[in-house]
Amino acid sequence: MSLTVPVTALSPHELHATDLDPAVALAEIGRIAVTDLSAWTRAIDEGTYPATLMHRFADAGAFRLHLGGGHALGGAIEGMARISEVCASTGFMAWCQNTLVWYLINSENEAARAKYLAAAATGHVLGGTALSNPMKSFFGIETLKLKGTRVEGGYRVKGVLPWVSNLGPDHFFGCIFAVEGAAPVMALVDCADPAVTLKPCEPFLAMDGTGTYGVQMRDLFVPDDMVLAHDAMPFVKKMRAGFILLQAGMAIGLIRDCIALMREVEEPLGHVNRYLEVQPEQMSETLAALEAEVGALAATPYDDSRDYWRRVVAARLLAGEKSVEAAHNAMLHCGARGYVRASRCQRRLREAYFVAIVTPATKQLKLMLDQMPA
Ligand SMILES: Cc1cc2nc3c(=O)[nH]c(=O)nc-3n(C[C@H](O)[C@H](O)[C@H](O)COP(=O)(O)OP(=O)(O)OC[C@H]3O[C@@H](n4cnc5c(N)ncnc54)[C@H](O)[C@@H]3O)c2cc1C
Q1: Residue 97: CB within 6 Å of ligand 1?
Q2: What's the number of domains the chain is made of?
Q3: Closest residue (by CA) to atom 12 of ligand 1?
C-alpha cells in the first residue's frame, strides 16, 4: 500500500545551502514528525510506504541539510533523529534518501550530479542504497552479487540483491557491481527500467513500511551519466564515514523516545521501577555522550586519519548496542502497558534490533575493529 500526492517543484537555485536555515528546517521536520508522522506510525509499521510524508520531509529540507557547510553532517543527523524519535522506519528511509544524496554530493561525475543531485535532495526523486553487499564484500564477508560488463556508453549489469529499501516503481538507488578485469563500479539504477524487477520481501519483524524489495537486474544498461565512480574503492573510502555516521540519527531518535517511555511510567510505576538496573537518568547520560561523539565526528566527514575512522566505527557500534539496550529497558519499565500491540514501546524494541543489524551490523563492526591496527 502506498500513500502519494504530487509535490511542489523546487528550482535548482533553491537547493543552495544558504537558502535553507537549518534551525527552521529542523523545527519543521520535528513538527511534521510529531503531528502527521505520529498519526501514521502504526500503518507504516504494518506495511504502508509513506511517500507523501517523505515528500513533506523533503520540502522541509530533510534531505539537503548536508549540502553546504563543508558537508558537515550534524544537521542531517539531527533531522533523522527527530523523525526516528517518532518512527525509526521513516528515520531509516530518511537515511536511505540522505545517503543517496551523499553519493551524489561526492561523485566526480558532473553529468550524474547535474541530472540527479537536485532531484534527490528535494525528494523529486526518491530512493536508496544497495551497499550492504559491497560493504560486506570489502571486508571479506561475502562476494559482490552484481556483475557488470563494459559496453559502448556504459555497462550491462546483472544480478540479484535480497533487500533494498525506500524503493518503488519510479525510485532510484546506488549500487556497486564487479567488472571482470577492472575495478568495481558504483552507479545509480532506475527502478523504472524494464530490466529491473522489484520483488516484495516476506514480512519482517519491523520496517515493513520501508519500501524494501528484492531487486533483480537482467542485463540492465547503466549509461555513463548514471555512473557515480568508475573505480568504486576510492569513492567508498571517501564517503564511508558519512555513510556510517548518518545512521546515528536513527539511534539517537530511538533512544530519546525510549527514555521518554521510561519517564512516562515514572508516576504510576516509579515505586517499583526504581529497582531496575537502568534508570532514565543513566540512559540520558549515555545518550548525551553518544550525541557528543557523533556531533564531533559529523563535523569532519572527510577526515582520512586512522584514528578518526576507528572512532566512527566505534560510535556506530555503540549506537546499535545502546538502541537495543534503551528499548529493552523501556520495555522493562513499561511492563504490560508496553507489551500490548498498540503500544509504541514494543515497536521501539523491534525497531531497535534493526539499528543493530543493518549493515554495518554489530558483528561486522566488531570484525572491523578487530582488523584495525591498534
Ligand atoms: C528491513 C531490511 C531493510 C534493508 N534494507 C537494505 C537496504 O536498503 N540496502 C541494503 O544494501 N541492504 C539492506 N538490508 C540488508 C541489511 O543491511 C543487512 O545486510 C542484513 O540485515 C544482513 O546483514 P548481516 O551483516 O547481519 O548479514 P547476515 O544476516 O549474517 O547474512 C546475510 C546474507 O545471508 C543470506 N541471507 C540470510 N537470510 C536471507 C534471507 N531471508 N533471504 C535472502 N538471503 C538471506 C544472504 O546471502 C545475505 O547476504 C536490509 C535488511 C532488512 C532486514
Answers
A1: no
A2: 3
A3: 132
